[in-house]
Predict the 3D structure of the following.
Amino acid sequence: MDAFSDLIRGVRAHGSLFGASTLSPPWALHFVDGAPLTLCTVLSGAGWIVPEHRPPEPLRARETIVVRGPATFTFVDEVGTRAEPIACGEHCATPEQGGTRHRRGWNDPGEDAGDTGDAGGGRGATTLIVGAYPVRGEISRRLLDALPVVLRVAGGGTADAVLDHLAAEVSVDTPGQQVVLDRLLDWMLVCALREWFDRPGGEPPAWWAAQRDPVVGDALRLLHAEPAAPWTVAALADHTGVSRSTLAKRFADLVGEPPLTYLTRWRMTLAADLLVERQAATVADIARTVGYSDPFGFSAAFKRVRGINPSEFRRTATTLTSLRD
């Protein structure tokens, strides 16, 4: 398991929202849910993403923009459009205003396509694909912390193949379609984030760049594959084929902290999610799961890293989860 795979595993589309909208000007779709992550891509045509309290971003055919919540945003035909905003979210119905058709999970080409032979709708129409991602847990939060409020990925990259599959899938209404669309959106998001992290002149998070290093990358994979193992710097150095001093310096230079400090923070991140997910497990059970035989040592480490003891964290996080649900 690599660091990116671990961080993104909790960011999954599960039928929360899929929109395939065929739009004729003027339009203004206001995405009001403030989802933690929302992916927007245009199959044909163009428009503008207008994030709350941020400058507008043009979105052209086969480009992708990812918006990080909780701020809302609007997709418009042009900045200053005369269209009245239509509120769209997880429970968006099927508003019919100003030539706008919005569908959850499917696309109806309708009469426009019948007249023009254009599977994306009428001439000059814009086809928008939107996927909103619920993100819960401390593991996925580390990924969100590495992202800006708005990131853009140009067309022509690895995501283009996924777009072709999306275009084919949204043009029909078939059994199991939501599952296919969810998985395609997951694939699309992974491609978009990879390309954004690897963009020329970019500043990816330290853990992303460090994964490419032959020594530190191996050490990170070991820590993520077996976080509960009794790792020492000597053991990691032995597995990666370098001296302890070489590993320690190289890891700190690339990741920004020593190997065992990174391991402790990662264990506490795992523990934070386990405390919420496994309500029947004791603190001692969670401690053993993340590599601590002594629950008191675990509690001390958890409070040092998280600023709160495990039991208090569980009570607070469980209450917040219940309120969201």
Summary: The chain has two domains: 3-93+124-198, 208-323. The domain at 3-93+124-198 is CATH 2.60.120.280 (Jelly Rolls).
